[in-house]
Design a protein that fits this description.
alpha/beta; Adenylosuccinate Synthetase, Chain A, domain 3; 10-stranded mixed sheet; 4-stranded mixed sheet; 20 strands; 21% strand
């Protein structure tokens, strides 16, 4: 039985939760392997809408074991807030597992994130201010707090004091903020221990044993390929590996166990925060996509930058991740457009470039070269098969597929959980 990686193939917000739901009844475990509560999934079930930030979207599917693995940074306060919200709506969250090796986001990480962004001024990265980057920085600097440390007060206190030694000097002398008392952080984290303890496990061992037993495990990436700290539009990226390789390091499951890599792409492109975006639209069509697609961040509420589909980015994602299948979401948002543009290459200083340039300066100056396709006006939200889509919609999908480096196996045609057209079995 397969281990399947599900990743965003653009700049995030592509609709990974919808794809997870499509596989839900056939999956035994859903694993979040990177990131924190700096991004979110919106899942629509009937008339109910669920906005998840830290929890894997599989927590909404009965019978699935949701796992927060070692590659995630966990804000425990946010975790409990999300769990409480789901409990209040009658959902069972008792199967959640959290890696003992996952790192913890503390108050001082959130503080450092916000003051650093303000200090950078116009050069800021556009972070969410949730403390994600500083928590990962502490992890790399080997002064991080792990989930398991919460259960040993002596170790916890030593680590918090060590982490604050430098940070308090920065807060007071550089940023003109008050120092943070170690006891304040320690007492807060210790207060979480009793409720947290039953959820904590050796998740790497559990996942490998599940695969040995023939279970299906879905590894769900946070953020997306173009936000990957190594392979994205650095420095305008997240602080973790959001590509398929991150599923191995972020979970403790070896890369040779993964069977399929599913990449999620919108039928157009969006991004949040600063950084290059060749197909970004500043006109009525950008507003059309934002309004029709309700392009506002699940976590921040920030309006997303919107643009046409970028085929070189899809090809890049297919190559970097080893994508076996694409899921094309939000095709319905394009309904009503007379003409639809697709970026097929870039013009960089008068030279045609067919792939994403490795040089940051070149990508900043890339001008999209477009191919135009006729649009459609028919309502496609009720379509249940590819043949039921209007001819122009089918032609658009087939053209995008030919440019993108892998097959399009499913197509999102509406916001509902079941509003999806399947062309190929994602697990076959």
């Amino acid at each position: 039985m397969p281990a399947v990686v599900l990743i965003g193939a653009q700049w995030g917000d592509e609709g990974k939760g919808k794809a997870t739901d499509l596989l839900g009844s056939r999956v035994d475990y859903v694993v979040k392997f990177n990131g924190g509560n700096n991004a979110g999934h919106t899942v629509v079930i009937g008339n109910e809408k669920y906005a998840l930030h830290l929890l894997p979207s599989g927590i909404l599917t009965p019978g699935v074991t949701p796992v927060i693995a070692n590659g995630v940074v966990v804000d425990v306060e946010v975790l409990f807030h999300e769990l409480n919200a789901l409990l209040a709506r009658g959902l069972d969250v008792s199967k959640l597992l959290i890696s003992a090796n996952a790192h913890v986001i503390t108050q001082y990480h959130r503080t450092m994130d916000k003051v650093t962004e303000r200090f950078l001024g116009r050069r800021n990265i556009g972070t969410t201010g949730r403390g994600i980057g500083p928590a990962y920085a502490d992890k790399i600097n080997r002064v991080g707090i792990r989930i398991q440390d919460i259960f040993d007060e002596n170790i916890l206190r030593q680590k918090v004091e060590g982490a604050l030694d430098q940070k308090n000097h920065l807060l007071v002398k550089v940023y003109n903020r008050r120092a943070i008392a170690a006891s304040e952080i320690v007492n807060e984290l210790l207060g979480y221990a009793e409720r947290l303890r039953p959820m904590v496990a050796d998740t790497g061992l559990i996942l490998n044993q599940a695969l040995d037993a023939g279970k299906t495990v879905l590894f769900e990436g946070g953020q997306a390929t173009m936000l990957d700290v190594d392979h994205g539009t650095y420095p305008f990226v997240t602080s973790s590996n959001a590509t398929s390789g991150g599923a191995a390091t972020g979970s403790g499951v070896a890369p040779n166990r993964f069977d399929r890599v599913i990449g999620i792409v919108k039928a157009y492109t969006t991004r949040v925060g600063s950084g290059p975006f060749p197909t970004e639209l500043f006109d009525e069509w950008g507003e059309f996509l934002r309004a029709n697609g309700f392009e506002f961040g699940t976590t921040t509420g920030r309006p997303r930058r919107c643009g046409w589909y970028d085929a070189p980015i899809a090809r890049y994602s297919a190559r970097v991740n080893g994508i076996t299948d694409f899921v094309l979401t939000k095709l319905d948002v394009l309904t009503g457009l007379e003409k639809i543009q697709v970026c097929v290459a870039y013009d960089i200083d008068g030279v045609r470039v067919d792939e994403v340039p490795v040089n940051q300066t070149d990508f900043h100056h890339a001008v999209p070269i477009y191919q135009e396709f006729p649009g459609w006006t028919e309502d496609i939200t009720g379509a249940t098969s590819f043949d039921e889509l209007p001819k122009n919609a089918r032609d658009y999908v087939l053209a995008v597929e030919a440019m993108s480096g892998s097959r399009i196996s499913a197509i999102g045609v509406g916001p509902g959980r079941d509003a999806i057209v399947v062309r190929h079995d994602l697990l076959g």
